[in-house]
Specification:
mainly alpha; Growth Hormone, Chain: A; 2 domains; globular
Length: 500
């Protein structure tokens, strides 16, 4: 009789291991939920914030853009710092920084201070986002990670729903400042719980790759800022220069990392096709799917005259189904492997995009929640499956950097999707009008609306193609060996140290 591999044998200290798993799952889910709440609630409150702070739209929109910029530029480095210093410590620090940034945002006397406070929030969010996946990989054995990653999908979906439901009520009834103040008590409790129960991997006694850190931060910052400037002002010599300089630094970063004895990012790991294809498919999924969310928002607000709250409410069925299915699909990923679920998830999203492309100016709005259910089915399958595939190829020493790289690619995809959506909109209407449409303060009528709809349809077709390429990449990596049929590395032994 063949004995079970070591990875499936419960350790002697199973009760304490399960407590660590429960603490990590709870705290990473709460953190994901808080970040998701802020992502939706800030968009809904933006017009009100602009009016009350007497800020032009071109300035107040940076409360969104600065968050996208910093999370895109910082997340991989935050994951690597977690590997070196302790993932639990960096995650708790991120939660504390995010909470402090929320307080500063709520008390901001003007738009400039609010934007700076949002930058502080983004630093904290980067620390949390980069290390959440690494913490799960460190405390869960491979054959049970899928369900844990499913709870992160659950947190994101519930957070998005709460942001939609609370955004209008809080902004209208008690004021926009309370959309930030509600984070403070949650953050204080979460940080206190994290200090007590979050496991900490011992600091690695290795040097820090300063040249790699600096060059990687510079290239991501330049590329991200160039993309944002492209969305805000269109094509100019300046933003093309930022993009060109950032791209030119990529070969230099590769040279530094290949020569470094202890690189910030283990580029040689990317030769693993399963890891590389999972990362690239995640990047393309972010571009294709999130651009659809932006485009659909502009369709509902610009062409159908809905308020931001009403437009968001139509998407709740999809968020709800994705949240509920996350842990369920994650458990199935543990049993049957990630490849099929990740690929089917992207195909569901692509099918939803094609359905959205059939919407006309006078289409029945009831189609929106129906189609969103299909996309919710896709997200419920894709996120836990792809996260499991990525982290299953990382080593305990690089959990943080690989988790951070995955998060960086997702954040860059989000940024690119925003640029893509606004560029399509600005092709048929003035750019400032595109911003007003995005925020729900302007409706389009007549021929201008017809041109805008044509552009949206073209963008949706392009998004569907991007998602199909992502699905092909997801499927091309081949079938993974089942975690319960072969011996695989267990959880990171360093994660058993308990809270320090």
């Amino acid at each position: 009789m063949t004995s079970l591999p070591a990875a499936t044998t419960p350790p002697a200290n199973a009760p304490s291991a399960r407590r660590r798993e429960a603490a990590v799952t709870l705290l990473t889910t709460i953190g994901t939920l808080m970040v998701a709440v802020d992502s939706t609630i800030v968009i809904l409150a933006l017009p009100t914030m602009g009016r009350e702070l007497a800020s032009p739209l071109s300035t107040i929109i940076w409360t969104i853009l600065i968050y996208l910029l910093i999370t895109a530029a910082l997340t991989t480095q935050a994951g690597r710092i977690g590997d070196l210093v302790g993932r639990g410590r960096i995650y708790n620090a991120g939660f504390a920084i995010f909470t402090i940034g929320s307080a500063f945002s709520g008390f901001a006397p003007n738009a400039q201070i609010l934007i700076a406070a949002r930058a502080v929030q983004a630093v904290g969010g980067s620390f949390m986002f980069a290390n959440s996946g690494a913490l799960i990989a460190a405390v869960y054995p491979p054959e049970r990670r899928g369900r844990a990653f499913g709870f992160l999908a659950f947190g994101w979906g519930v957070g998005a729903i709460l942001g939609i439901l609370l955004g209008g009520v809080i902004t209208t009834e008690i004021g926009w400042r309370y959309i930030f103040f509600i984070n403070i008590p949650i953050g204080i409790v979460a940080v206190a719980l994290g200090l007590r129960s979050m496991p900490h991997n011992p600091p690695q006694r290795t040097g820090f790759d300063v040249p790699g850190f600096v060059v990687f931060s510079a290239l991501l910052s330049l590329i991200s800022y160039g993309l944002i400037e492209l969305a805000v002002y269109g094509v100019t010599a300046a933003n093309l220069g930022y993009l060109a300089l950032g791209l030119a630094l990529i070969p230099l970063f590769v040279v530094f990392e290949l020569r470094a004895s202890l690189p910030m990012l283990e580029l040689r790991q990317l030769k693993n096709w399963l890891l590389a294809s999972a990362l690239i498919s995640s990047f393309l999924q972010s571009i294709g799917y999130l651009s659809v969310v932006f485009l659909l928002t502009m369709y509902l607000q610009g062409l159908r005259g809905l308020t931001p709250l009403d437009a968001s409410l139509l998407l709740i069925p999809g968020y709800l189904l994705g949240a509920v299915l996350g842990p369920i699909m994650g458990r199935n990923v543990d049993r049957r492997g990630a490849r099929t679920f990740a690929t089917l998830g992207i195909l569901c999203m692509a099918g939803a995009v094609v359905a959205y492309s059939l919407l006309t100016v006078n289409a029945w709005l009831g189609w929106i929640p129906c189609i969103s259910v299909v996309s919710g089915l896709g997200t419920g399958m894709f996120y836990p499956a792809n996260s499991t595939a990525v982290m299953g190829q990382a080593t305990p020493r690089t959990f943080g950097s690989i988790s951070g790289l995955r998060a960086t690619l997702m954040n860059m995809g989000t940024l690119l999707s925003f640029v893509f959506a606004l560029t399509i909109a600005a092709a048929s209407i003035p750019r400032y009008v595109a911003y007003e449409v995005f925020l729900g303060t302007t409706n389009l009528v007549g021929g201008l609306g017809s041109d805008f709809l044509t552009g949206i349809h073209a963008a949706l077709y392009a998004a569907a193609v991007i998602l199909l390429v992502a699905a092909a990449l997801s499927w091309s990596r081949g079938r993974e060996a089942s975690a319960v049929s072969v011996a695989v590395p267990g959880p990171d032994p360093s994660a058993s140290g308990g809270a320090k």
